[in-house]
Amino acid sequence: MKSAQEKDSFLQGPKYLHVAKRLRANIENGLWAPGTQLPVERELADTLAVSINTLRRAVGELVTEGIVQRRQGAGTFVAPPEPGPPTGSAGASTARRLVGVLVPSTTYYYPRVVEGIQRVLRDAGVGVVLASSKYELGVEQDELDAMVASGVQGLLLVPNLHLMSDPQAYVDGLRELPLPYVLVERRPPAPEPDDPTAWVGTDHAGGVCLAVRHLRGLGHQRIGHLGRRRTGTAEQVAQGFDEAAALLGVDVVDGAVARREVWGGEEIAEYVRHCATAGVTAVFCHGDRDAAALVVEARRQGLAVPRDLAVVAYDDEVAEVGDVPLTAVSPPKSEVGALSAQLLLELLDSAGSAPSHRVHIQPRLVVRTSCGGRPRTSVAGVPTGRTASAG
């Protein structure tokens, strides 16, 4: 069993090298196939929470290594594969099984989910057709229809349930699909007891409780929550914080628990001022980028992080690349993807007769600089694991 907490992780070496490592891994894992264009600079820099200059230096490393190519006036592309020997007849290629994978984004959070999916399917000799909905319902439906029409044998889906007026009706409607599917990082929001939907996801509430328990162990009594609205996991994370605060005796201060669709600079500045005035000494943030912005603003207002204000983030996408590496709840993205693929393979191999599984996998807490270290008092660690039910 892994421990729920990892030893302190500090950023070593120039930031652009860490960004280059992330981009390199995404390419090696097949997120951006040979010959495809990388996202535009601004989108990629915002996703990775780095400056344009840092991103350009990172991409420059990949250009030097021959992994990507810059094309004047067109953009940056993954280098095409070197020619190799023939891999077999056309008939053998077309007989290969294919699985469609539909995610909301190919730049944030989901690259490691896709990596886990591809690792399992590649080992099973199954190909992947990857598409992104870009968090748009119309695009999602078009991509889903295109995948079904393309002849894939199964689907791994991350639907944008948080954007739908009746998400349960959408999940119920998926039963009309003519092929097996598994939901990834999503679950039916209001299922009937005999709902047969198979899903694999992160236990977000459990991850939040890990973070709050850690902060309580460090002696923090007044803990704020800077949260989000209208994201795929926002409601689960918010509910998890409320439950953890009640369970662990957190002193919840009016205004210190706040959620927005988007946190701008002025809103974060006002939030920091309110926390300082109200005696809040720690904040749990839903999202690395908001947490990084909170740290910058706290220091601008004269607060030392973590001495005056401890910060823990949720996502662990770019938590370690800031000037103050962020302690973060790290969802088991690769494991979620891998297990989703395994369940789908079971459905395919059994012609749909395999039992339906509903699986929660618990995140882990990665302790870095922003929270101030390990607990002063003993805190029960929760091992990474999974719980599952078959129905």
From TrEMBL:
Keywords annotated in UniProt: DNA-binding, Transcription, Transcription regulation
Every HTH gntR-type domain range: 13-81
Q: Which SUPFAM superfamilies match?
A: Periplasmic binding protein-like I, Winged helix' DNA-binding domain
Gene Ontology MF terms in the entry: DNA-binding transcription factor activity; transcription cis-regulatory region binding
**Record region (Disordered):** 372-391
Organism superkingdom:
Bacteria
Query: One of this protein's Pfam families, by short name?
Result: Peripla_BP_3
The record ties this protein, via PANTHER family, to: ALANINE RACEMASE, LACI-RELATED TRANSCRIPTIONAL REPRESSOR
Query: Which named protein is this?
Result: GntR family transcriptional regulator
Recorded source organism is Streptomyces triticagri
Q: What is the lineage of its organism?
A: Bacteria, Bacillati, Actinomycetota, Actinomycetes, Kitasatosporales
